[in-house]
Specification:
This protein is 39% helix and 20% strand. It is an alpha+beta fold.
């Protein structure tokens, strides 16, 4: 039980560290924006993503809130013959279908939900969402 408490504390500390680093990065970008006149995307708080039609305290929704999902970022993809796949070794380069600098796809359980760009926070990779696909559009893509 104490291991679970320590893990919760460690996760909270890491979350706080990420939040502080992201805040610092946003502050430095805002300062840079004032100097350069460039437009920087606005930050989206999690509360802004909540649908007020289905509040979080809804018992039906509360049942699924703790279900884990797999969040993945896709850099690109390519088709390759098995013959070529078997010839890959250390140092091989595989060309992807993405242009350098193009936003990454953010997927939840294989379903595209957003696009974003890679950021580095405290020597760890992260992703800043640049475009979130609306729930209506996600439902259309499922059909």
């Amino acid at each position: 039980m104490s291991d679970e408490n320590n893990q919760d504390v460690d996760q909270q500390a890491m979350a706080d560290e990420w939040a502080a680093a992201m805040e610092q990065q946003l502050t430095s970008e805002t300062d840079a924006e004032g100097a350069s006149g460039a437009d920087v995307g606005e930050s989206v708080e999690l509360d802004e993503l909540r649908d007020d039609a289905n509040p979080v305290d809804d018992p039906k929704l509360d049942v699924i809130l703790d279900i884990p999902v797999t969040l993945s970022m896709e850099v690109g993809e390519t088709d390759i013959a098995i013959r070529n796949l078997l010839q890959l070794n250390q140092g091989s380069v595989i060309e992807l279908n993405r242009v350098a600098g193009e936003p990454l796809d953010v997927k939840v359980n294989g379903t595209l939900i957003a696009h974003g760009e890679v950021v580095v926070v405290n020597d760890r990779y992260g992703i800043r969402l640049t475009d979130v696909i609306s729930p209506q559009e996600r439902i259309k893509r499922l059909k």
